[in-house]
Write a structure and sequence with these properties.
The complex is a heterotetramer, with 2 copies of chain A and 2 copies of chain B. Chain A is of the alpha/beta class. Helix content of chain A is 25%, strand content 33%. In chain A, helix 4 packs parallel to helix 5. The chains are: A alpha/beta, B alpha/beta. Bound molecules: flavin-adenine dinucleotide (2 copies), flavin mononucleotide (2 copies) and FE2/S2 (inorganic) cluster (2 copies). Chains B, C: It is found in: Cytoplasm.
Chain lengths: 275, 320, 320, 275
C-alpha cells in the first residue's frame, strides 16, 4: 500500500484505450531458470511488450522491496507469442530478488523502452556480444531470422560458462563463441575475416554490439578500420528509463545524450569511437 | 515471493475524464488541483506518451540556465533505501531552447507551467528571468537549492544575505509570481525562507534534495562520478514535512509548495496539513511515469471528506 | 504475501563462540570489532537478555546529564518510510545513577563503554565530564547534536564558535579519549568537525538524527507531542555516508565513528570505505535486539576478503 | 536481503540453548479470520511465546514492508498449545498488511514482551475492556479459567460489533457487553454493583482493565471510589517494545515510565488516577 504504483492487470488496456503508452504495471512471471552460475532467464507474460519490443530495447523491472525503488533495466532477449524473456546476471540485491521470483508470481514492468537496433537494411549482421550484452543480441538474431534477406552471424564472448548457446542457436544463421580463458571477440572477428567468411557474404556487413565498454570500443575500432557500420548498445545507471530525468547520460560527439531514450543504441560515429 | 506486492487496491482509472473537485491557489494563480511535477523529474517529450499533462495542477520544468549546460559526467545516480540519489548538475539546453520548444509545447498542451530558473551566479539568474519575464510561463521558480553544482544553486540558498541580494535583483524584473525553492541542507530553513519572503518571493517551494552519497562495496569507490548527490524519494518525506511545518509556523501567510517523498495522495495530504498550499511530485515519477496524475486523483478524493481544508486551499488561504 | 521476506540467507549463529578476526582502533582504544551500539538505542537492562554485550566492539550508552532528566512528553515516536522518528528529549536518570548502576554493570559484563555526555549548557557538560573523568568509561562521546532539546544539543553542534568554546572547557578535564558527536542538520558538517578537532576532539562520530516530522492524516495533527523529531534508520544512510566521506576528505587523520542507517554488515562496510574507523548501530536495534551483534559478525566475514582495509583499521589508520 | 533481520526458524532454539531470550524471528501464520468489519484475529505458531506469555503481555509483529520497519505491538488474546492469537483493528497501513496474511505465510515476531497482569491472588477479577483493549482480557480470562479459586467477570464495551463474544464466552465465568449506542462500561459496572453481583462474591474484586484512556480513567475512578484495586494496561507508540529506547513513556507518580517494560500494566495508584 505504501508504494501504491499503478499495477492492476487492466491498466495496460485502459492506457491503450485512451491512446497512451502503458505505465508501470504488474505482469505474471511464467518461467524462471538458471542458465549458469548467477545467470538467470526470466519470462513474463505481457502482450503489449511482446508485440512492440525491438531488439536492444529494454524493460524496467521493479523489485518488491521498498528499499530498492529504482528500475532495473534489462534488454529483451526473446519474445514468444505474448511472453517476453530477459537474461540477467545476479550482481546485487535487486537482481538477487528478481532471481527468486517463481512462475505465477507478479512482477512490475515498464516498457518496451529505448531506441533499438536499426535492422531495416537487408545485410549480413554480425552480432558481437560480451557477457550480459549477449541477451539483446539473441533477440536481434530472433528478429533477423524472420527476414530471409538478412544473415545473422553471432560472435559471443563469455566470461566463463557459455550460457546462451541454446538460445542463440535457435535463431542465428551462424554462431561462434569464446570465453575469457580462450580469448576475446576481436580474436574471433579476426579469425572470421581471415577465414574469408566476411567476404563470402554478398552484402557488406553491419555490426551490432552490446557488452562491456572496453570490448565495444575495440569492436568499434575494428569496424572503423574496415569501414563497417557499427551500432553499439550502451549501458548507464538509470533513474527513470523513459527520458524524464537525464540521469543516464553518455558522452557523444553531440554532447551528453540519454542512454534510455536517445539510445541505448548509438553508432560508432556518434560515440566518436575508432576515429 | 510477494505477488502483486504493489497492486493499487484503490484502483483509479486515471485515463477517464475527471472533474477536478478541489483546486488550490498559489500566489494568486489557480491550479486545478494541488499536485504538480517537481523540477527535473518531468520532460514533456517523455511524459506526453503516458498521460494528458494538462490534468496536472501544474508542471514544474527542469532548471533552465542562460546557455546550454552539460551537467556532470555519468554515472549520475545511485540508490538509497527508499530513495534515489542524483547528480545531474542541471544539464539543460538553455533558456532559448526552452522558450522555443518546451514552453510552447506545454502551453499548447494546456499545462500550467512553473519554469525553474538556474544559475551559477546572479547574472545567470537575471538573464534567464529577463527572458522568461514576457514568456507564457505561469510562475517562475528560482532554484537556489541544487546541491550538485559548485557555484550558484545551494550556495545561494544556504546564505540568506546572498539570497536577499539575488532577490533584490530579480524581483523588479517581472510581475510573474516568483517562487523561491529552498534546500533542506541548512540548520534552520526558516532563515533563508524569511530572507526570500522579505525580498519579494511570492511563494516558497521546499524541499530540494538532501545531500547524500553511496559507495559501491564491490570497489570501495563512490558510485556517482560527482561523488555526492541529492537524495530524494520516500526516505526524505519526514524532512520535507518538517521544513514545511516549521516555515508555515514562522511565516503564516506565505504560500508554500511542499515537495519531498510524495508517492501517494495520503502523503500529499500530509503536506497540506503541514501547511502547504500545493505539492510537487519528483522521484515517484521516475518509478512510475503516471505517479503525479495518480496522486492528484487520490488527493482529490481524500479532500472530499475534508471540506474545511479544501475551502482554504481553493481560497488561497493557508492552513494552520 | 511474502513468506520469510526477511530471512537472513547468510545464516550466522550469533550465539556460537566467535574469534573476532578484524579489530579496529579508535583514538588509541582497541575495539575487538568495528561495530558498537549508538547512544540512545541501548539499555543494558534490556539488551542483556538477548546476547552477550561484551561481544560488541563497543557499547555506546544513553546521553547522560548532571541530574535526572524527564525528557519530552509522549508520544515520542513516529514512523517514516524506512525510518523512525524520535523525540526522547534525552530522558535519563543522571550521571550519578549512571556511575552507580549502568557503568559498573557494563564493565562487569566485559563491555568497552563509550559514555555519551549531554547538557543544556556548558556547565552541564562540564559537570558530567568531571564525574566521568575518573570513571571506568573507556571513551567519552560529547553529544552536541540532539535535535530534541531546546538548549544545548544541536544548538552547540551547529555553531562552531560555541562548540570550540565548549571543547576548550572540557578538553583539560580528562585524558580519556573524547569523541564529538555531530549533527547532519548543518550546511557543511566539515565546519563543526574542524572546530571540534582543532579544540581537542580525539575522534568524531556522525551522524545524529536528521530533523523530521510526521502528521496523522486522520487528525491533521503532528504525531509526536514535541511536533518534530529526529529521523534515523535506513532512510538516513546516504546522508551519513556523505557526512563521513566529506569529513574524512577535509580531515584525513581524525578517527571517525560512522553512524546512520546501518542494518547490515554491508552497510557497515560502506561506512568504512567512506572513511570511518568504526561504526555504531542505532535504529536497527529497535527492530531486532540482536542487530548490532549480527552486523558485527557479518562485517567480520566481509573483511576477510579485504585485507588492506582490515590492516588499516587494526592499526588505527584511516582509509582514503 | 536489505533488511536482513535474524529470522530463521531455528534461531529461537539457538538463543535458548545459549541461555538468551529469542530475538526477532519468523513464525508461521496458521489462521487469519475477520471477526468484524476491520477487526482481525491472527494466529501463529510459536512454542516459545505460547509457553511464556502472560495476560497483558504483548508481541511485536513486523510487516514485510521496508517502509514500515517499526514494530506493531499487540496483546496476546489466546494461547492454544503452541499457537498464539492476537486480535487487532485495521487502523493504518501496518495492520492493513498484517490483515492480508494467510495461513502458511511467515510473519516476524518478537516476544512475549512487557509486564502482564498480576493474577497471583485468588480473587474475583473484573475484566473491564473497551474496544481493542478487549483482546488481552480474553487471555486473562483464559488464564483465570485454569485457576478454580478465582472468578472472571468480563465487562466489555464495544464501539459497535461485539466481535469477541465467541472467545470470551469460552473462558469467562460471567460476561456482559455493551456497545457505544447502548452505553459504556461504567454503566455496566454500576448495574453489576446495583444487582448485588459484586457483593455476592466471597472475595473483594480486583479490576483488570484495558481500553481507551478516558474509559480507563473512568474505571480507575470508579474503582478508587470503592477502594477496589485496579491494574490498567496502557498503550503508547513504541520504538522497540523491549525497553531499550525510552520512546514509549507514560507519566506516572514515579515519573515517566516505559509502557513496554515497566508496563504495559500499571496500578491506578502508579498512574495517580482516581485520587
Ligand atoms: C539498457 C540496459 C540494458 C541492460 N540489459 C541487461 C541485460 O540484458 N542483462 C543483464 O544482466 N544486465 C543488463 N543491464 C544491467 C542491469 O540493469 C544491472 O545489472 C542491474 O540493474 C543491477 O541491479 P542490482 O539491483 O542487482 O544491482 P545493484 O548494484 O544493487 O543496483 C543498485 C542500482 O544501480 C543500478 N545498476 C547497477 N549496475 C548497473 C548496470 N550495470 N547498469 C545499469 N544500472 C545498474 C541498478 O539498476 C540499481 O538502480 C542493462 C542495463 C541497461 C542500462
Ligand atoms: C502494548 C500494546 C498492546 C496493543 N494491543 C493491541 C491489540 O491487542 N489490538 C489492537 O488492535 N491494537 C493493539 N495495540 C495498538 C496497535 O499496536 C496499533 O493499532 C498498531 O500498531 C497500528 O499499526 P498501523 O500500522 O496499522 O498504524 P499506523 O498509524 O500506520 O502506524 C504507524 C506507527 O504508529 C504506531 N501506532 C499507531 N497507533 C498506535 C497505537 N494505538 N498504539 C501503539 N502504536 C501505535 C504503529 O505501531 C507504527 O509504529 C496495542 C498497542 C500497545 C502499545
Ligand atoms: C533527477 C532529478 C533532477 C532534479 N533536477 C532539479 C532541478 O533542475 N531543479 C530543481 O529545483 N530541483 C531539481 N530536483 C529536485 C526535485 O525537484 C525535488 O525537489 C526533490 O527531488 C524532492 O522531491 P521528491 O522526493 O519527490 O523527488 C531534481 C530531482 C531529481 C530526482
Ligand atoms: C530512540 C533514540 C534515542 C537516541 N538518543 C541519543 C542520545 O541520547 N545521544 C546521542 O548522541 N544520540 C542519540 N540518538 C541518535 C543515535 O545514536 C544515532 O546517532 C542515530 O539514531 C542515527 O543512527 P541510526 O540510523 O543507526 O539509528 C538516539 C536515536 C534514537 C533512535
Ligand atoms: S534514465 Fe531518466 S532520462 Fe534516462
Ligand atoms: S518501546 Fe523502546 S523502551 Fe519502550
Amino acid at each position: 500500500m505504501t508504494s501504491s504504483f499503478t499495477s492492476t492487470y487492466d491498466v495496460v488496456a485502459e492506457a491503450q484505450a485512451a491512446g497512451y503508452f502503458p505505465p508501470r504495471h504488474t505482469v505474471e512471471v511464467t518461467d524462471v531458470r538458471e542458465l549458469a552460475d548467477h545467470v538467470v532467464r526470466l519470462t513474463f507474460r505481457d502482450p503489449f511488450i511482446a508485440s512492440h519490443a525491438k531488439p536492444a530495447q529494454f524493460v524496467n523491472l521493479f523489485t518488491h522491496d521498498d528499499f530498492m525503488l529504482m528500475p532495473r533495466p534489462f534488454g529483451v532477449s526473446e519474445v514468444e507469442d505474448d511472453e517476453v524473456s530477459v537474461i540477467f546476471a545476479v550482481i546485487g540485491h535487486g537482481t538477487e530478488q528478481l532471481a527468486e521470483l517463481e512462475a505465477g508470481d507478479g512482477v512490475d514492468v515498464l516498457g518496451p523502452l529505448g531506441r533499438g537496433f536499426d535492422l531495416k537494411q537487408d545485410a549480413n549482421y554480425i552480432l558481437v556480444g560480451g557477457g550480459l550484452g549477449v541477451p539483446p543480441l539473441i533477440y536481434a538474431a530472433q528478429k533477423l531470422a524472420e527476414n530471409d534477406a538478412s544473415f545473422a552471424t553471432a560472435v559471443f564472448g563469455y566470461r566463463d560458462e557459455h550460457f546462451a548457446e541454446e538460445y542463440v542457436s535457435r535463431y542465428a544463421d551462424w554462431s561462434w563463441s569464446i570465453d575469457n580463458a580462450e580469448g576475446n571477440v576481436v580474436d574471433l572477428l579476426n579469425r572470421l575475416e581471415q577465414g574469408d567468411a566476411l567476404k563470402a557474404f554478398d552484402r557488406k556487413p553491419i555490426i551490432l554490439s552490446c557488452g562491456p565498454l572496453p570490448m565495444m570500443k575495440a569492436v568499434a575500432e575494428w569496424a572503423a578500420e574496415r569501414d563497417i557500420p557499427a551500432q553499439l548498445s550502451m549501458e548507464q545507471r538509470m533513474g527513470c528509463g523513459y527520458g524524464t530525468c537525464v540521469l543516464c547520460t553518455v558522452d557523444t560527439v553531440d554532447g551528453r545524450l540519454k542512454v534510455c531514450s536517445d539510445g541505448p543504441v548509438f553508432t560508432r560515429e556518434q560515440l566518436g569511437w575508432g576515429e | 515471493m510477494c505477488a502483486n506486492r504493489n497492486v493499487n487496491d484503490r484502483h483509479i482509472n486515471i485515463y477517464e475524464a475527471h472533474e477536478w473537485k478541489h483546486p488550490t491557489k498559489v500566489a494568486g494563480i489557480e491550479w486545478k488541483n494541488p499536485v504538480g511535477t517537481a523540477s527535473g523529474t518531468f520532460q514533456y517529450a517523455a511524459v506526453r506518451w503516458f498521460y494528458d499533462v494538462s490534468q496536472l495542477g501544474a508542471v514544474g520544468t527542469k532548471g533552465c540556465s542562460p546557455v546550454p549546460w552539460e551537467g556532470n559526467p555519468g554515472p549520475r545516480t545511485a540508490e538509497g533505501p527508499a530513495s534515489n540519489l542524483n547528480a545531474v548538475g542541471l544539464q539543460n539546453p538553455g533558456v532559448d531552447h526552452y522558450l522555443a520548444h518546451d514552453l510552447p509545447a506545454l502551453k499548447q498542451a494546456g499545462a500550467l507551467v512553473v519554469a525553474n530558473v538556474a544559475g551559477h551566479c546572479d547574472d545567470d539568474y537575471m538573464q534567464v528571468v529577463a527572458k522568461l519575464a514576457d514568456s507564457d510561463a505561469d510562475m517562475l521558480e528560482i532554484n537556489v537549492s541544487c546541491p550538485n553544482v559548485t557555484h550558484g544553486g545551494m550556495s545561494v540558498g544556504t546564505d540568506p544575505v546572498a539570497l536577499a541580494a539575488l532577490m533584490d535583483k530579480l524581483r523588479p524584473m517581472t510581475d510573474k509570481p516568483m517562487v523561491v525553492k529552498l534546500t533542506p541542507n541548512v540548520t534552520d530553513i526558516t532563515v533563508p525562507a524569511r530572507a526570500a519572503v522579505e525580498h519579494g518571493a511570492d511563494a516558497l517551494s521546499m524541499i530540494n534534495t538532501v545531500l547524500g552519497m553511496r559507495l559501491d562495496i564491490r570497489t570501495g569507490e563512490p558510485i556517482i562520478a560527482n561523488k555526492t548527490g541529492g537524495v530524494s524519494g520516500p526516505a526524505v518525506l519526514p524532512i520535507g514535512i518538517a521544513a514545511v511545518y516549521r516555515t508555515r509556523t514562522a511565516l503564516p501567510e506565505i504560500p508554500i509548495i511542499g515537495i519531498g517523498g510524495i508517492d501517494s495522495g495520503e502523503k500529499a495530504l500530509e503536506y497540506l496539513y503541514a501547511g502547504a498550499n500545493a505539492v510537487e511530485v519528483g522521484a515517484a515519477a521516475l518509478f512510475d511515469p503516471v505517479a503525479p496524475l495518480r496522486i492528484a486523483r487520490e488527493l482529490d478524493d481524500l479532500l472530499d471528506s475534508r471540506p474545511e481544508l479544501a475551502a482554504k486551499l481553493a481560497a488561497g488561504k493557508t492552513w494552520r
